[in-house]
Amino acid sequence: DLRPWQRALRAQFPIVTGHPELAYLDSAATAQKPQAVLDAVHTYLTTSNANSARGTYTWANRTTELVERTRERVARFLGDRRPERSTVHFTSGTTEGLRTIGRDWLPGFLRDGDEIVVPVADHQANIVPWLEVQRLLAREGVHVRVVPMPYQSGSGDYDHRALAERAGPRTRFVAVTHVHHVYGGDMNVHRIREAVGPDAVICLDAAQSVGHLPVSVAELDVDFVVFSGHKALALPGSGAVWARQARGPAFVPGGWSGTPNTVGIASLEAALDWLDAAGPDRIERWTADLSTRLTEGLRRLDAYEILGCPLSLAAGTTVQRRRGIVTLRHHAIDSGDLGFILFSHGFMVRSDHHCQGDAGEKTGSVRVSLHVYNTVEEIDRLLSVLASLS
Ligand code: PMP
User: Fold this and answer.
1) What's the CA-to-centroid distance between 125 and ligand 1, angstroms?
2) pLDDT below 50 — which residues of the chain?
3) Where are the alpha helices (DSSP H) in 27-83?
4) The complex's ipTM?
5) What atom in ligand 1 is closest to the CA of residue 236?
6) Domains of the chain, first to last
7) Ligand 1 centroid distance, CA of 228 (Å)
8) What is the reported pTM?
9) Any coiled-coil ranges, and where (predicted)?
10) Is 327 touching ligand 1 by the criterion CB < 6 Å?
11) DSSP code of 335?
12) Using an 8 Å Cβ cutoff, are 369 and 294 in contact?
């Protein structure tokens, strides 16, 4: 029974406990922060604030140590067993991290005639940089072919078998997402390597998985992991790129000599410590159980459709277990209106197109996204309001 564990953790989020009349169901946009993260920020700013590197005094040295320690912390949090062979680069978030790879690394890796796999129905942050690389290289006479990532119809997962058919010896770079920001399922990234072979570089958008479930680079066999600190309980502006230095040229992003976001980094260290102590496996179970409760409740209501979830199941198909994200659409109520109605009952959800790529959903939807502070009672109250509208 995870309930006593969850109650103790929920109590550590002042914004959540301070507003019992509200239910925050928008953690895929940004997560709330536990007291330990607020304290770490306060402690850093009141005891050590300085610029990092090359200082000759205590505060500067402490800041340098904080930055280096947090690099290692990120690698360890991602299950990196050989951190001496990888690099951690701090960025403002996933969008900037992916763009940095596209700007500073990928052009030097690709050759004329190479192919890149782009997931056209994922978050735009994981599409735009790769199309940009193709466009920039074309100007130099280097032609790169974009292979659209195939998706299984209706299930919200990639079609790994179709990918294996499309991928060839010239497929050298594959962009994937760990947990889809609209469909909410685990994209079974461990199957991507089988589909594309040992030589392709796999870049993982982990914006919706870091902080929500265990992420292990050793198990996933990926080359880049990119995430946003603000979705993993740290402050905005505190993301990172983890890069394995095994395939292709070394990842040496520009801009490293500027001032890092030291306050964000302090918050990230505290957030990763907090998450490790809480247990990413238990957080995953908790939010997946709540998502299942919501999904099952919604499937009993005719007025709603769940995105990335087939209405009727063909034999042998299973509904993917959601990792804390369930996106729905009412057959008659506009998603913006539904968002307003839900907020009038105290529920904070996101309604629109969720920055999904071109091939994604054309009409808006309402996304319910969870973290460890959400409760069974919140889901049941939400379901009863949704039922009253059906
Ligand atoms: N990728 C995915 C899967 C996301 O959900 C998001 C945020 N919605 C991003 C990338 C972009 O993250 P950020 O805004 O923190 O850069």
Assistant:
1) 7
2) 359
3) 35-47, 58-77
4) 0.99
5) 15
6) 3-33+279-388 (3.90.1150.10), 38-278 (3.40.640.10)
7) 7
8) 0.96
9) none
10) no
11) H
12) no
